[in-house]
Design brief:
The structure holds 2 protein chains of 2 kinds. Chain A is mainly alpha-helical. Helices cover about 75% and strands about 0% of the residues of chain A. Chain A contains 11 helices and no strands. In chain A, helix 2 packs across helix 3. Chain A is globular, with a radius of gyration of 20 Å. Chain B is α+β, with helices and mostly antiparallel strands. Chain B contains 3 helices and 9 strands. Chain B is elongated, with a radius of gyration of 21 Å. Classes of the chains: A mainly alpha, B alpha+beta. Chains A and B meet through helix 2, helix 3, helix 4, helix 6 and helix 7 of A and helix 1, helix 2 and helix 3 of B.
Amino acid sequence: MRDDPAVTALVVRASDGDQAAWNELIDRFAPLVWSICTRYRLSREDINDVGQTVWLRLVEQLGHLRQPAALPGWLATTTQRECLRVLRTARRQDSFGFRSENEMSSGQNPATIEQEILTAERNAALRAAFAELPARCKQLLSMLISDPPCSYAEISGALRIPIGSIGPQRARCLDRLRNCPALVDLDGGQMSSMMTKRTAASGAQAKDAEGNLHA
Amino acid sequence: MPDVWDDDDRLLAELGESLRAREAVPPEFIYAAEAAFAWHNIDAELAQLTYDSSLDPDNAVAMRAEAASIRALTFTSTHLTIELEVTQDALLGQITPAQTATAEIQVRIGAAETVPIDEIGCLVIRPIPPSPFRLYCHTADGIDVLTGWITL
């Protein structure tokens, strides 16, 4: 997934000035930036400021990215650094120091951040694949994953299909999902087996993330 | 594709999580991110942040002990070095090599303001601009340098 051709293509198009490609990058990776910010328990206003700084830095870096595949790692590292800066500033301004050291470091575990990057990459690929499905499949799968879950009777009524064919259609739609290029490109086997190794190395990796973009 | 996705239930559950993670992001966060693209392709030399006192562990200890939160930043480009110091009510700066110039303070929302840089390379920005902001220095000799975004 580190070499996702879709992400690489989007970065190239965005650095050529293509707003649509930029928007698609945002669509893919905004959840990563957002989820890291919420983990630091920042206020909405602070989250917006962190987000803004992160995206503006990315705009600036676009033309210099040599390894677009390292983008999620760079985003995670940059977001984390900005969150910590906001917390530090808040603590300096608050003479009572209501933010504890624990809170300050709540998101810093390198294993957690690495997991977050992997999840974000997988989620982005899943959404991209889902977007390629035919409308009928999207409707059916959306109902199946809704929270609270829809009953088969509700699905049958809404989509006008017999209850007995929901199961087989579910299986067919999930198969189509698996065969979407976005998921086929996702190198899962290697990813799972490398997880332990990568997690162990992620401290150094996070430190180098910014440099890697220019490597 | 991860092997665990061979399982229908697992794949469906993770698909649900991925869609909910995207739905959790408020629309205004997305709009602001999309709008940031307007800053693409600004024609100037980019100065990189080469020193930030808030990232300097020795300095952070000293800062906590003082009432005034002072921060020092240095931006370096091929032709110009910009040193900034944050005081209680102003942002002081100096460019090296010293020369007459102007500094435009670009902010995320709103019009940019311009302050002069005198012949010994000094500038004063008061009050401190809202974060994030960036400085666009234009020297009398025609050197254009843009700092990265600064969050104080």
